[in-house]
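Sample intake — DUF8201 domain-containing protein
Collected from: Blastopirellula marina
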Amino acid sequence: MFVAGALVYAYWYFSAPMPWPAPAPGQPAFDPTRGDLVQNGLLLLPEIVMNWFGGGESPLGGFDRLGIVLMATLILLFSYALGEFVLFRLNLLKQFGQIDGFVLRLASGLMLLSWSTCVLGQFGLLHYPLAFFVVLATLFFTLGIAWKKHLFERATEEQPPATYKSQEHESWAWLLAAVPLVLFTVGVSMLPPYEYDVVEYHLQLPKQWYEAGQITVLPGNIYSGMPMGAEMWALLPMVFQPWETDWYYGALTGKLIVGLFTLLTAGLLYGAGKRLSGEWAARAAAISALGTAWLIYQSGTGLVDGVWAFYTLAALYPVLLVFAAQPKDNDGLPLTGLAVFSGLMAGMAFSVKYPALLMAVLPVFGMWIYAVRTDWKRLGLYVAAVTVVVSPWLAKNVLATGNPVYPLAGNVFSTDIRSPSQIAQWDHAHQVPEDANGNRYSTKQLIQGFWIFLGRSDWMGLTIVPLAIAALWIAPRRLSIPLAVMLAISWLVWWGLSHRLERFLIPAIPLGCLLAGLGAQRISENRLGRVALRVWLGLGLFTAFALVNMYDSIKLDPQIFVSLESDKNVHITDAIAFLNEQASPEDVVLATGDAELFYLQTKVLYHTCFDDAPFKPLLAMTAQQRRDWLAERHVQWVYVHWGEIARFRSPGNYGFPEYVTREFFEEMEIQGILERTQFVHGNPEEPAVVIYRVRPADAP
């Protein structure tokens, strides 16, 4: 039945249409299916490998990544030690296996580093590395002071008997088969960022906070009100980096750590699958994750949805251990430690993205209620752990905006600093989308959302869905039902309450992978089943390898062996390159329209489409007052991107402040305040991009 279902699903999966750039004038259109891309990946394998080296046309790199790797390694080693102490304090060292225990130590330590950086940053200590060193050292010794006795006791501990038949030789073979995807994932994680959200706020905000010396809600970037737990791994190395452009190399370090969460997810799935079910469950779950292009895309771009996907799984895992235990064994489980640990992981998921409240925190809490019934102590500890981890982010927003979940729920909190029109603009941009008939919950939309969840999403993995469906029939109900419920909640929140970006479904992927692993374990009990699994999982790995290397489709930079400087220059726009060349370090740039300013080396005053423009006060000023205002802020350059402004103002887009007009800048030209530089793109009468220089006050 599985073989027949998998064949039908594969035909449907490979027939899905895939994105491709519009053809040049006079050229035929290419509308590939997923099967076409996989076939091309097989035929173009030498070209794919050459693309990793820049096609032989770009300088290669290697040692230029050494500093990033060393800093990331130090952070991970320190995180592992902190995680060891956390698990020891919670009496959980014996509850996890080798691989899942290793991964959860890293995850726990990274959570503590994120939390500490957030707290210290809010106290304005980002320019005081000694303060960070003292606090982190104190944290290290405080958590580890009781652990030293355990260090000498470990050699005498009795190892628990193995509960599964070891097949390590085949596991090593699968690891070898996954090496190309693992190498690619690590390689793209170290490349300079280029994805819009990443260079607009995921890495731009840590840079701005570091330059300001404090974590707070910034007036020009509404996203600074979001919880940004994953971005702290970029901010922390900025504090300690020895290079002149410390914010840049710190950002790349953080991007590498975020990118490694695809591998951490696969590791946790392997360990959890082995602990909960068996060897084949471990393999299938881990390979399904590595074979999902969405997760690798997160690693390569620096988006953080894969991080809260990991922490969602890590929050659920302790509950699954309770469900998996026989009733007579529950008394031996450290329920208190498991509840606290689950809450810490759920809180970290919440600290990465707000939707985790509905997709991780509350559903896992419901699972705990089912597991321990009215054990108020354990339930209270879960809630307390979540609260402790996420509270610094909520406190920051209360102090700066009066709204703890800023920029959400603006109409609920009367103290929100935004105008009613700005709140309405944000809510409208993030509401459930309408179809052509103005419907938000039509039958057609329901079916489309259902198909996306089942694999019609462009970058969904091949292997997950058939194995997960099989698990619903043949896997132990005490494990398959909780996973199915979590998956259903994830889909309902995504389809019913969000603006339905497909990557917001990524947190459901590890849950689906673990469910698929449970199905694979039962299928592996049959010889034919094991053969089918080997073919199916191998095909999944190759499919993912082909998809992530199709640059024209997935837009994932594949140049993993090209020098960082060369790759960075490709992603810097002409306008930013001009300003970096012309502006001196003490100059300030006033920008509007373009919010992708991560690579700008000088200071900048700018805004997103949801914020007031920093130059709004100039509208009501005289010419002399305008000169004084610009001089007080050391503004020497004005950068206007009318193309971006037009895009935001187009039908169905986010909108843009109406008072930003060409007439305003023309008036300042007439007043002799601004003069155009040679950087003018497009029609000189109505240019798409223009950069002005602020004229000196004594200029004729």
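Post-analysis note: The CA atoms of residues 309 and 459 lie 16 Å apart.
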